[in-house]
Amino acid sequence: MGGVVLANACGPCIGQWARHTDDPTRKNSIITSFNRNFAKRQDGNPNTHAFVASPEVVTALVIAGDLTFNPLTDYLTNEKGEQVKLDEPLGIEMPVKGYAVEDAGYQAPAEDGSQVVVLVSPTSSRLQLLDPFKPWEGTDITGLKLLIKAKGKCTTDHISMAGPWLKFRGHLDNISNNMLIGAINYFNNTADSVKNELTGEYGPVPATQRDYKAHGIGSIVVGDENYGEGSSREHAAMEPRHLGVRAILVKSFARIHETNLKKQGMLGITFADSNDYDKIQEDDKIDITGLTTFAPGKQLTVVLHHHDGTTESFPVNHTYNAQQIEWFKAGGALNIIRRQMA
C-alpha cells in the first residue's frame, strides 16, 4: 500500500507526530486506532480533528481515502476498473509465524554495581540527576501564597503539558517550566497568568512559583473536581514538588495523580465541604494546621488570612495511610527507600 505504520506508543499519543502540512491552520481530519482523540493529542495541532476506530476500519478508510466510506456496503475501483469490495477481516490476533526479534534490547546489569558511576553533563538541557526532596520540617505549614486557583477541568496535560515539552522529561528543572501553564486561573479566566504576591504583577505560573521559591516562600495550588485526571504522568506531581509548592487542595482528586503526589512527599488534601472552594481569595495567606498529629482518617485544618485582615478556617480531608504519612514526613517515598538501602 505504500503506507507508513506509526507505533501507537507515546509519540503520536502525546502530540509528537511530526505531520507535514503546507498550512497548519487549515482544519483537517485524521482517523486512528489509538486510544485518545482530544485536541492536539496526535500532532499538536488544534486544527486537526481526530476520530478513533478499530485498526480494521482505519485501514479500510485509508485504502478508500474517504472518511464516509462504508466497507460493509461500498465498492472501490481496482486497477482494472472493476468495482470490488474489501474482504471481511479475519481477526488474526497474533502473527501466524510469530515475531522476528533479533535484538530484544535487554542489557544485563553489572554484577557489582557499587563502582558504577552515572555521568551526566551539568550543561545538558535534557538530562539532570535528581536531588532528594527535603523532608517535612516537623511543624504546621504556614504563610503559604496562593499560586493558582484552577477553574474547571485540570488534567495532567494542564499541569504538565506533553508535546515538545517531553524532550525535557529527563531534566526536572527544565520540564518544570511547563507547570500548570494550561490551567485556567479562576480570578481572570486566563491560562498561565497568575498574580505574583511579591510584585503585584501577573505573569506565567512557573516564573511566579520560581520567585516564591527564591524567597523561601511556600505556596498552595487549589483545584476543582477530579483534579489530575488523564495520563498518570509523574511529572505532574514532581514539578510542583520541585518548585516549592507545599500542598494541593482540591474538591476531588483523580486517583492515580493523588497517589503520585503522595509518593513525592506532597500534601494532597480535599475540601470537606466543596463550597469552601469559594472562600479562597486571590491575595490570601494560607496555613495548614494539624500536621504535628497527622494520622489516618484525622482531618486537617486550613486557615485563610484574607487581605482585609479577616480570618476564616475550615476542615479538610485526606486519604493518607500510615505508610504514606511516612512518605510525607521523609520528603518522598524515594527518601525512605534510600534510607533503607544505606
Plain-language structure description:
The protein has 342 residues and is α/β, with parallel strands linked by helices. The protein folds into two domains: 10-84, Aconitase, domain 3 (2-Layer Sandwich); 141-341, Aconitase, domain 4, CATH 3.20.19. It contains nine helices and 15 strands. Helix 8 packs across helix 9. 27% of the residues are buried.
Brief description of this entry?
By secondary structure, the protein is α/β, with parallel strands linked by helices.
Q: State the CATH architecture of the largest domain.
A: Alpha-Beta Barrel
Query: Describe the biggest sheet?
Result: 7 strands, mixed, barrel
Reading off the top of the CATH hierarchy, the class of the largest domain is best stated as: Alpha Beta
Structural class: alpha/beta
Taken from the alpha-carbon principal axes, the silhouette is: globular
Radius of gyration, Cα only, in angstroms? 25 Å
* Helix content percent band: 10-25%
Please count the helical segments.
9
What sequence of helices (H) and strands (E) makes up the elements?
HEEHEEEHHEEEEHEHEHEEEEHH
CATH level-4 homologous superfamily of the largest domain: Aconitase, domain 4
Sheet with most strands: strand arrangement:
5-10-11-12-15-14-13
> Total domains, how many?
2
Query: What is the number of E strands?
Result: 15
> How much β-strand is present in the residues?
15-25%
CATH topology of the largest domain: Aconitase, domain 4
**CA-to-CA gap between the ends?**
58 Å
Mean pLDDT: 93
